[in-house]
């Protein structure tokens, strides 16, 4: 199951990076300025109260029934609410909109949300660090000559 989720996430991220029409394609000149971050999500806990989580500590995933009767979900990593300067209510309301909820948001509706909180550990690697790591492992594998920089354009 974990391997499947990892492969699915990697495939999804690959498609997002290469096929997302919201952003122009990366260029070779941008590579030295790129960073790749991965968040490992852990400690998932279902909670009874939609306010039972801490801004900047927990990521949250909400599940709700929209105005058309369909089940919807949305999630934010722990850093999102803190970076945006949001409190609990602003974060929940933003997630509801992210999940496609179009009706007015009331406190009564917020109480119907199923909320799961989690933690994450974020790891970031620069392109230069990636190249150094790739070069180091290439030599360790006995190849004995430097690898050219990765070029997905050729």
From TrEMBL:
It holds the Pfam family AMMECR1. It comes from the Eukaryota. Coiled coil: none annotated. One of its GO terms (cellular component) is nucleus. InterPro entries: AMMECR1 (IPR023473), AMMECR1_dom_sf (IPR036071), AMMECR1_domain (IPR002733). Residues 1-134 form the AMMECR1 domain. SUPFAM superfamilies: AMMECR1-like. PANTHER family: AMMECR1 HOMOLOG (PTHR13016), NUCLEAR PROTEIN AMMECR1 (PTHR13016:SF2). This is AMME syndrome candidate gene 1 protein isoform X2. It comes from Castor canadensis.
């Amino acid at each position: 199951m974990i391997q499947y989720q990892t492969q699915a996430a990697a495939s999804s991220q690959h498609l997002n990076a290469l096929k997302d029409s919201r952003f122009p394609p990366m260029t070779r000149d941008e590579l030295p300025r790129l960073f790749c971050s991965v968040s490992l999500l852990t400690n998932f806990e279902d909670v009874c109260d939609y306010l039972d989580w801490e801004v900047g500590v927990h990521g949250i995933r909400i599940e709700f029934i929209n105005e058309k009767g369909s089940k919807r979900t949305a999630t934010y990593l722990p850093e999102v609410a803190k970076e945006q300067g949001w409190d609990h209510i602003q974060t929940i309301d933003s997630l509801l909109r992210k999940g496609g909820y179009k009706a007015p948001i009331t406190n009564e509706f917020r109480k119907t949300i199923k909320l799961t909180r989690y933690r994450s550990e974020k790891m970031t690697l620069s392109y230069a660090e990636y190249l150094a790591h790739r070069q180091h492992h290439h030599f360790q594998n006995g190849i004995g000559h430097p690898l050219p920089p990765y070029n997905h354009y050729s």
